[in-house]
Amino acid sequence: MTGNEIYADFADVYAKGSYTRHGREVAAKMPEVLGHLEHRPQKILDMCCGEGSFAVEMAKRGMRVTGVDASERMLEIANARALIAKVTDHVRFERRDVRVLRYDGEFDLATCWFDSLNYMLTTDDLGKAFGGAARALRPGAYLMFDMQTIHGLINHTRRHEHWIERDSDGIVDIHRAEYDEDTGIASLHITGFLHVGGGKWRRFDEVHRQRAYPEDTIARLLEESGFEVVQSSGNLDGLADLTMEIDRMWWVARRA
Description:
Largest sheet: 7 strands, mixed
Number of domains: 2
CATH topology of the largest domain: Rossmann fold
Order of helices and strands: HHEHEHEEHEHEEEEHEE
Strand content: 35-45%
Shape: globular
CATH architecture of the largest domain: 3-Layer(aba) Sandwich
Radius of gyration: 18 Å
Distance between the termini: 44 Å
Helix content: 25-40%
Number of strands: 11
CATH superfamily of the largest domain: Vaccinia Virus protein VP39
């Protein structure tokens, strides 16, 4: 297909690529992070769960996970991943827009990884996502997420104007990036070709748009949503301070 329905076709490319490593690596780090917080969640809300790598890994650790995502194809892949891992009794996936979540105090931890909140292109949308997370959490529970910084978004766009992300296993994946300084929005134009057999290929085009926000804006939106900021740092351990030169920031906030 063509147009701006993101992850309709790119979901399959994403699930077969190196992108899924992020979720698995974060899941492996969670016991240490949660131990540091002295927090032992039983029910997790994984916002923008994508193809389910993080949710499935946490389900393997015995936690009950609800993964939500707006992409129907991503959720199909996530359900298949849970079935293969034999954790369908510990994880469920639902098609939801994180800006209009309707959970009510059901979860001990909410997560949102790998730039997902950068897809919120206005402060209003980002605030709605934080508000939905706050309503979904019990008092004293935590929200954890990572976002690209303004520096990271600009740096990535200018460092990689266009490139071939993948050319193997029947997938050709071409990316072109641009940054609009007036709007602060980075656009990633993805053109993919999928081998469908018989010497034929199917083309798809998607445009992924992201925006980064200053640290004080994110902190303000969290506080307005009912959170107390516990940590904002250059890594999930909190060992590096957040500076203008860091490409990605990691946040931990506690529900009041």
